[in-house]
């Protein structure tokens, strides 16, 4: 299956022969790739106490993302840039923020500010939370300057400059070889495409501090519980990442799939801790906490409660949720699918949206009813049934919290993803580099490969790379614009935060058209249809990318002799 070549002269591994050899090509490309990866990736501030090894693994993982999905890395960088610009506009509304710059917004959104209140562990806050706390008078605006932020940043200007020079050199070298009709190796073509695709990532992240190790701590004298109460929430309201989720989750467009939700290398989130310990609990204790969905079964069927629904948006000052009519236990069970249930004071059950609250159910006992614990948490049950405890010890422990939450130690690097409606200018800045990246691979359509099969697989892969990237981005854009609320994914890991699986409407139905029925495509009404389509497009992109990376390595075993001919710079640039 040998591939016929124009020159008819195929050579294997070439050592130093007076011109460039195989090792020269490999070394030059690796240096460009490694330096570009190391300088282009701008991660958020690590959590307190994270080891250097853990941070290195995180950087390595995102470096692999830049290799396998450079378009996605640019998308993340663009989303963070757009978010920082919006945060800057918001902060400029404060009179004391006249010196606030884009560096400050990047610094805040990357977890550069850590809030410390009397009743919670320190946790990072983003620009939206910072604006809220300052505008409400809970804290003063941090007085950190641009110079201080850049002093914290360990971004090596020399390293960035060197990476840019190396990238520029490989571009010039590729152009010169094309002019003199000297072929490139697939590895050089891949490196060239990577350098071009990361150009916009450099642009979007140019003013974001890099390698910041220690955040700025903001002391807040107001308890977090008071801040929550002032916002219209319960003082012990559960959360997903931090107590400020009621602000930070409002603009969330994407959320992780449950499988990746607690990926520790990403967010540094600490697992919920068991707070029971050896604490004594009274069977007559006025309140007890039970975790898990099954706990609803243990509320007596003859009990009725008043249900209050917590607001999904920030309530205006003084606004209080209006209680709904008394609901039976069956209604309570029906509603559990859409929210978290907690019995508050005076037999009030509070329903919190699942999108912004952790799945914890807390039920309080009153003097007339008791809480059945059959099938509930075994540790809590054993404590309740411990007859060795004295009545005094039982009375001293009035409350048991089976699971407590600890806020995330850092802001995840994927916490800011594309919004619902990206500006057209920003879309153009994303699409153009993506098209150039794909076009560079298409330039290698007639490259000579060791076998015809490898050449055909290369061609098929670059077609998939060029087409599926546009299809995926365009499809997600269309689904967002028309307000489709079924579930669909972004490269498998993330799904749209506004998904409503129970709302079985297709894209066509939501836009008021009947094309699907006319064409006889009934599957379009299935809520998971578009998730499957986008997942398959992502799979095809991943397979194509893996093949391209594999081929650029194995194709070095046989290359045309002209690949090893040096450029005649005197002919390319006269008078040197």
From TrEMBL:
Protein's UniProt name: Uncharacterized protein
Phylogenetic lineage: Eukaryota, Fungi, Dikarya, Ascomycota, Pezizomycotina
Biased composition (Basic and acidic residues): 384-397
Keyword set includes Transferase: no
Transmembrane feature ranges: 21-41, 61-81, 426-445, 457-479, 528-548
Region annotated Disordered, chain positions: 384-410
Top-level taxon of the source organism: Eukaryota
Keywords: Membrane, Transmembrane, Transmembrane helix
Keyword rRNA-binding attributed: no
């Amino acid at each position: 299956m040998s591939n016929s070549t124009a020159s008819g002269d195929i050579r294997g591994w070439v050592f130093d022969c007076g011109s460039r050899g195989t090792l020269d090509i490999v070394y030059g490309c690796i240096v460009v790739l490694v330096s570009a990866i190391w300088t282009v990736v701008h991660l958020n501030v690590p959590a307190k106490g994270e080891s250097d090894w853990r941070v290195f693994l995180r950087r390595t993982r995102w470096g692999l993302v830049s290799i396998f999905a450079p378009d996605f890395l640019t998308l993340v960088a663009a989303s963070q840039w757009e978010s920082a610009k919006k945060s800057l506009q918001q902060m400029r509304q404060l009179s004391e923020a006249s010196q606030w710059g884009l560096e400050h917004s990047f610094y805040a959104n990357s977890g550069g500010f850590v809030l410390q209140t009397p009743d919670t562990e320190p946790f990072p806050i983003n620009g939206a939370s910072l604006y809220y706390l300052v505008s409400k008078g809970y804290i003063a605006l941090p007085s950190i300057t641009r110079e201080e932020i850049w002093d914290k940043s360990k971004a090596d200007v020399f390293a960035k400059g060197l990476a840019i020079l190396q990238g520029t050199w490989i571009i010039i070298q590729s152009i010169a070889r094309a002019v003199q009709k000297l072929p490139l190796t697939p590895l050089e073509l891949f490196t060239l495409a990577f350098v071009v695709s990361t150009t916009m990532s450099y642009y979007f992240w140019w003013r974001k501090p890099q390698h910041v190790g220690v955040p700025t701590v903001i002391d807040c004298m107001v308890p977090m519980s008071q801040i929550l109460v002032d916002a219209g929430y319960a003082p012990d309201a559960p959360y997903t990442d931090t107590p400020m989720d009621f602000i930070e989750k409002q603009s969330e467009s994407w959320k992780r799939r449950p499988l990746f939700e607690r990926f520790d290398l990403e967010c540094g989130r600490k697992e919920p801790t068991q707070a029971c310990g050896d604490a004594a609990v009274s069977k007559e204790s006025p309140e007890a906490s039970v975790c898990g969905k099954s706990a609803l079964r243990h509320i007596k069927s003859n009990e009725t409660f008043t249900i209050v629904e917590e607001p999904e948006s920030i309530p205006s000052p003084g606004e209080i949720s209006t209680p709904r009519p008394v609901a039976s236990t069956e209604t309570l069970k029906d509603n559990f699918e859409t929210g978290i249930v907690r019995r508050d004071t005076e037999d009030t059950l509070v329903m919190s949206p699942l999108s912004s609250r952790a799945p914890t159910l807390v039920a309080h006992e009153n003097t007339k009813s008791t809480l059945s614990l059959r099938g509930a948490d075994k540790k809590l049950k054993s404590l309740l049934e411990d007859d060795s405890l004295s009545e005094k010890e039982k009375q001293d422990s009035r409350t048991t919290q089976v699971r407590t939450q600890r806020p995330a130690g850092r802001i995840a690097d994927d916490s800011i993803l594309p919004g619902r409606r990206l500006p057209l200018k920003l879309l153009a800045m994303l699409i153009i580099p993506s098209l150039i990246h794909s076009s560079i691979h298409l330039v290698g359509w007639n490259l000579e490969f060791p076998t015809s099969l490898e050449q055909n697989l290369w061609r098929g892969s670059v077609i998939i790379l060029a087409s599926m990237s546009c299809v995926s981005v365009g499809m997600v854009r269309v689904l967002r614009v028309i307000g489709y609320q079924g579930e669909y994914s972004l490269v498998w890991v993330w799904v749209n935060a506004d998904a409503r699986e129970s709302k079985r409407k297709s894209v066509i139905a939501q836009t008021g058209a009947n094309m699907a029925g006319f064409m006889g495509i009934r599957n379009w009404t299935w809520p998971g249809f578009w998730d499957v389509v986008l997942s398959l497009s992502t799979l095809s992109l991943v397979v194509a990318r893996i093949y391209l990376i594999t081929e650029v390595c194995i194709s070095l075993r046989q290359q045309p002799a002209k690949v090893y001919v040096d450029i005649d710079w005197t002919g390319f640039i006269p008078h040197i």
